[in-house]
Amino acid sequence: MNSWMKNSGALLVPILVAWLLALLFKAVLHESPSMVEPPLALRSVDVRSADELEAVFEALDYGWPVAQGEAIPALSVVRIPRDLAELRDVKRKKALFFQALLPLVIAENAGVLEARQMALAITAKAPEAWTEHERKWLSSIARFYRVRGNIAEAKVQRKLLRRIDIIPPALALAQAANESAWGTSRFAQLANNLFGQWTYKESEGLVPLDRPEGAKYAVRKFDTLDASVRAYLQNLNTHAAYLELRLKREQMRKAGGLLDAAEMAAGLHHYSARGEHYIDEIRAMIRVNGLKPFLQALPLRPAEL
To answer: Which residue of 4, 23, 94, 294 has the fewest CB atoms within a 10 Å radius of its CB?
Structure first.
């Protein structure tokens, strides 16, 4: 929360709460991706070179690696610069990639966490005590997270809460680096696709050059990087293939503390045809690149250029 919010006085709190609820109700009822927009609006930056991207980060006093408790600028890098692949300094290339992606993951997680807190508050009450707005909101967000059944039933609510939760930035960064070759792959460059997401509508994607004859899938295109991050979070939070990941996360929530990205990676058997070898790769990337658990607790700050 911004410092001006902390010091604005008690009268501002109910106004802000009402405003936030109104936005969330409106967004979810229309089942728009905006339902998980971050509390702090991101500043969009579209740069054409690695040097320009690095200059933006320097202007914001944003370096890599980040320290525990450091505030991250609320910056939305629209696309990965084309010349990132040409950098000979591997350390610099990795840093720029992580710096570009981390604010997007934190911001998307913040929006998901807002929705989770609302869902927890509503389901803490008996269904007969829900307001009409609360009932509609909960039903709509259940549809968004592909949870079927009577939302008034405890087992349906548990399934929903298992799905409305964050993905640790360490896991997202490692997978993005692995799937996109540090943002230099054809799909990252031409489609803003960092996580290898597919689509069966060729008009919405790029056809892989090595796609088998007769196959119908394509790699999904996104207008911006944050759209790719948002789709990735929804994929892990809703697809049946990643139930193990969600169950592990649920157990960690009950135990308290930060989520363990390396442990949650055990639920990625179906993310790649490489199976266990893929999980080992992701865990190694988390370890080798020093992707710490504290990344998920970093706050956002305004990106004032």
So the answer is: 4
